[in-house]
Design goal:
With 111 residues, this protein is mainly beta. The chain is 11% helix and 38% strand. The two termini are 19 Å apart.
Amino acid sequence: MEITYEYFREVNIHVGTVLSVNNNEKARQSALVLEVDFGSEIGIKTSSAKITHYYHQDNLIGKQIIAVCNFPTKNIAGIVSEVLILGTVDADGKVVLLHPSRKVENGLEIY
């Protein structure tokens, strides 16, 4: 299905920096709870993400990620997930996060 550029512009995709990482203990599948700083306009948002194959607290804190910031909130195993962190699924079925190739300002929009 093709979409128009105007339709795509309705999706708010921004860069943020991971501030904290914890296990989502109640999730059926292994998941992490991330607090991400998206800058002063968007603020700090929480997300539960099934990204435990390659990622953990040591390699996520301080990492910049890319997320959709205008989905409705969703309760995932007791966590109110406010953003959808973006990644791709590799040949082994494991999520690889999308991120800027160099550090940029939190909150910058992806076009």
